[in-house]
């Protein structure tokens, strides 16, 4: 028998169907709540609200499980590649070799950006944070490809926009960095794979024979896989809500980039390194900083700790911690902040404050340490997250479109003034 939930308001009972996901997750379908009862739900931060049904990513925060299209993150990080995972997320199945070759070649054919993008880039002062530049350049694609604004685009047209997004993202990201350091931009070298191409655009200097270190390219590929999707997080929900107005893929993803930028979301990876540096400079007393994080009168939070959904180890953090050890060893880097990070983790994991609140290291806790070992500057960390998250945003935007979901438009409980008479300024 179909399960239902009963709600009683002022003694009157209302029944709502219960929807069950393929992993046994339960949701109360309240689509008719307002119509039937005249009431809305109130859920700050949408902590208990399922905004959609999605077949892309499953995560179980209590068990520390993360799967893309049914495949575990551990398997994908160990055995797959970022482009293969992108294909999986966007099209729903692992590609055959022919499908992957075609996808990868299509992407290579679109890595160049219009020369006029450079004029836009030139308008940004070198003080610009690369996330702001990235979001702007990404949105600027609507100007170069106005056909992308058509909400009824054919699936071929949508495919072209998807390929262009994946192809140009590393170019925009590397150019945002070049703008910051005041160096001339590099054009994409299509003889290279996805990550190596990005690294060369980032780091090659004129008249220098730059070759990409495969250790660095492989580590980056793994990091991008780990960040590729994470169901209805802040930036993905932003992409879906902007996309629900039938805004273009470029403008929807540009909004997602902006949402990711905040320090409570993707911006946390930058904050973690800044925090570790600060603790090191302060003498490395981790107990003192743990006490600050626990003090409700102190705004300091242990960045890279805690998660809205994971109430157990973030599975990505486990993989990243191991990868950080491998990368530092292979590259022969001795990073003292790693030691501070491990000490903080150790102390926090046995402190009742963190235990009671189920606060564990999240994906961002160790990712900054790897990025730094790979030579990525601190304010590019969140840009790296954005490159990784792009296939997730694309797949969620595509799913929303294919499911023909309605425009996102939450309700509110108004708490302002009741109706009052306007008084002319002279009489106030
Ligand atoms: N340090 C100290 N206390 C914390 C922390 C932290 N990092 N995170 C949560 N708490 C406490 C918080 O003060 C609250 O305590 P109390 O119940 O006594 O008021 C309790 O734990 C619950 O926290 P919350 O802020 O209500 O939880 P949330 O689900 O709204 O926030 C979070 C989740 C990730 C924003 C938060 O844990 C946080 O600010 N963490 C640091 C920033 C960070 O690392 N963000 C990256 C998240 S992973 C990447 C991504 O997917 O975006």
Report on the architecture of this protein.
Helix 6 runs antiparallel to helix 11, helix 9 (214-227) runs antiparallel to helix 17 (363-373) and helix 14 (315-331) runs parallel beside helix 17. It is built from 18 helices and 6 strands. The strands form 2 sheets. The protein has a 3-stranded antiparallel beta sheet with strand order 1-2-3. The chain has 428 residues and is mainly alpha-helical. The model has no long low-confidence stretch (mean pLDDT 95). The chain has helices spanning 33-37, 73-79, 82-91, 97-108, 117-122, 130-144, 155-181, 194-203, 214-227, 234-243, 249-260, 268-281, 286-294, 315-331, 336-349, 352-356, 363-373, 381-402; strands spanning 4-9, 12-20, 26-28, 57-60, 65-68, 71-72. The N and C termini lie far apart (64 Å). The chain folds into 2 domains: 4-50, Rubrerythrin, domain 2 (Single Sheet); 71-401, Orthogonal Bundle (Citrate Synthase, domain 1). Carboxymethyl coenzyme *A (CMC) binds at residues 45, 230, 233, 264-266, 268, 293, 301-308, 357, 359, 362-364.
Tally of structural domains: 2
Total beta strand runs: 6
SS element count, helices: 18
Q: Spans with pLDDT under 50 lasting ≥5 residues?
A: none
Secondary structure class reads mainly alpha
CATH topology of the largest domain: Citrate Synthase, domain 1
Please report the first level of CATH classification, the CATH class of the largest domain: Mainly Alpha
